[in-house]
Amino acid sequence: MKKKRYILSFAMLLVLSLALAACGGSKQLSMLTGGTGGTYYPLGGQIAEIISDETGLEVTPSASNASADNVADLAAGDADLAFTQTDVMANAAEGINSFEGKAVDNVLAIGSLYPETIQIVTTADSGITSVEDLEGKKVSVGAPGSGTYVNAEQILAAHGLSIEDDIEAQNLSFDESTSGIQDGNIDAAFITAGTPTGSVEGLAATTDIAIVPIAQDVIDELVKEFPYYAANTIPSGTYTGIDGEVTTVAVLAMLAVSDSLSEDDVYDITKALYENTGEITHEKGKMISKDSALDGIGIDLHPGAEKYFKEEGLLSE
Fold first, then answer.
1. Dihedral angle at the C-alpha atoms of 58, 60, 66, 68, nearest 10 degrees?
2. SS3 136
3. What three-state secondary structure class fits 312?
4. Is the Cβ–Cβ distance between 148 and 156 less than 8 Å?
5. What are the boundaries of the signal sequence (predicted)?
6. pLDDT at 10
7. Who's near 75: CB < 8 A, 6+ residues apart?
8. Which residues, at least 6 apart from 44, have a Cβ–Cβ distance to it below 8 Å?
9. What gap in Å lies between CA 165 and CA 169, rounded to an integer?
10. Separation CA 211–CA 245 (nearest Å)
11. Any residues with CB less than 8 A from the CB of 11 and at least 6 apart, and which?
């Protein structure tokens, strides 16, 4: 009788162990993306799915306030992976701008992804045709400390304007910004995101929009002063009603990671991402490549990412 009970107990434990392995065997990781109206959120969902499918890791993406908050949450141990801008990450590592006195030393890079275009969006009948025309206007500049906010601050300064003194600054998300433009509550908005951006597409479908250009001489000054900027062009037809090219600047989106993740896990994540970009259906997937993954990276790579890029011959031993 005891033998039968022993066999039964053993069998039940075996079944329970197999069930637990099947249900909970994957390591759970969290990925911070961005607002639902931007590029990070939909793209992050696809990248998380690829990593989950290709590795023994289960990556769960979530919406967030994007760049600066994402880096802060990584540093605090509240997330494992996150999207951010290369300029914001560089600021965090140096302890400047929104990270003044709070330098981050426990967040590392996986790699860069694609250019993030600074788009100054307004309506076609606003009368705003240059950055200087923003003076005295209600302008969304993103949340204080966000990548968009820093971009707005630097671009306005390059035109002799300041957020504090020369515009009526509004701290809105991308969706709130485009809704505000549509409703007439604000005049323009800085939106730093990969193009086409969902919230801007939605606005262009109902409202005649314009995107304010940045003059070439100012672009040259910005790139010289802040090397993480690059000259960029928004092609004609990117949005309904935009019939000509718009000159502007861009930074790079990147994927950052907590230094607490193991070398093996980050190696698997890096390999899964850069070897399966063809599975990404989002428009920005075409721009993600291991050959450009080290562009604009201003911080150290995670050892797992470094191992992958060395194997691919993209880093010297």
1. -50
2. coil
3. coil
4. no
5. 1-21
6. 45
7. 92, 104, 106, 107
8. 31, 32, 33, 34, 61, 83
9. 9
10. 10
11. none
Give, as one character, the DSSP assignment of residue 301.
B
Paired tokens of 233: 């062009």
Bond prior to 144 in cis (omega within 30° of 0): no
231: helix, strand or coil: strand
CA distance linking residue 194 with residue 252, whole number of Å: 9
Q: To the nearest 10°, the Cα dihedral for 305, 306, 311, 313?
A: 120
C-alpha 87: how far from its chain's center?
Answer: 11
Amino acid letter for position 133: D
Amino acid identity, position 111: G
Tokens standing for residue 144: 């204080």
- CA–CA separation, 190 and 9 (whole Å): 64
Q: Residue 75: its pLDDT value, please?
A: 97
Vertex 228: Cα angle to 225 and 231 (nearest 5): 85
Q: What domains are there in the chain, each with its CATH number? A: 2-113+254-311 (3.40.190.10), 116-251 (3.40.190.10)
Residue 25 has what pLDDT?
63
Distance CA(229)–CA(284), nearest Å, equals 18
What pLDDT score was predicted for residue 26?
Answer: 81
Q: What is the DSSP string of 262-282?
A: -HHHHHHHHHHHHT-GGG--S
| Confidence at residue 9, expressed as pLDDT on a 0 to 100 scale | 46
Q: Which residues of the chain have pLDDT under 50?
A: 2-23
The answer to whether 213 touches 248, Cβ cutoff 8 Å, is yes
